[in-house]
Design brief:
Number of helices: 7
Strand content: under 5%
Radius of gyration: 19 Å
Order of helices and strands: HHHHHHH
Mean pLDDT: 81
Distance between the termini: 35 Å
Helix content: over 70%
Number of domains: 2
């Protein structure tokens, strides 16, 4: 028997929302650890904890039947801000290679324009592609590997892993960017097309 879709509510004080807020609050701490305290190991551990808890708030929201409008907004915002912080701060601290970090940020800006433009124009969103999920996992794991490479005894292992995951992920990332662009054009043209006689 299929599980019913959880009802989305306007509640604010829920366990999943609290977890999302804690993850958001960790972002300025991450910046402080990396750029002010010069504690790369601490920043790496915090980044890993936030990344590893990415699924927790969404899982609990469904499990506890506490899916909320606020939570659906907070969860992706926390993810994107943490990842963007890790990339930008990593570029500033010379942890993330520029070719990886800048190429990633350009792609993120491009997809943000596409997504927001489609939302503003047609009030619709694009379906996530499985290749996009794979590319995201590869690229963002590569950022974690580069941070771990700042720990001396891990550098020989994690830096090569960072390059392999980063290059492979970015190739897939830009392939999916082209695919998403096609999806956006198709969705826009379908919504503009007048209904056929069979549909009326």
């Amino acid at each position: 028997m299929a599980r019913a879709e959880p009802q989305v509510t306007d509640r604010i004080l829920t366990v999943p929302n609290l977890i999302s807020l804690i993850r958001l609050a960790a972002i300025p701490v991450f910046w402080w650890l990396l750029l002010d305290a010069d504690d790369v190991a601490g920043a790496t551990v915090l980044f890993g904890l936030v990344a590893c808890t990415d699924w927790v708030d969404g899982f609990l929201a469904r499990r506890l039947d506490q899916v909320t409008k606020l939570g659906k907004a907070l969860d992706p915002v926390a993810d994107r801000l943490m990842i963007a912080s890790a990339v930008v701060a990593g570029l500033i601290a010379d942890i993330v290679p520029p070719i990886i970090g800048i190429t990633l940020m350009v792609r993120e800006v491009y997809m943000t324009v596409i997504t927001l433009g489609l939302m503003a124009w047609k009030r619709v969103t694009l379906d996530v592609r499985w290749m996009g999920k794979l590319a995201t996992f590869a690229v963002y794991s590569s950022i974690g590997w580069f941070y771990l490479a700042e720990i001396p005894f891990l550098e020989r292992l994690t830096r090569p892993l960072g390059w392999v995951a980063g290059v492979a992920g970015l190739i897939l990332y830009w392939i999916t960017a082209v695919q998403y662009t096609g999806d956006a054009v198709r969705v826009g043209s379908e919504l503009e097309s007048p209904p056929s006689r069979e549909e009326t």
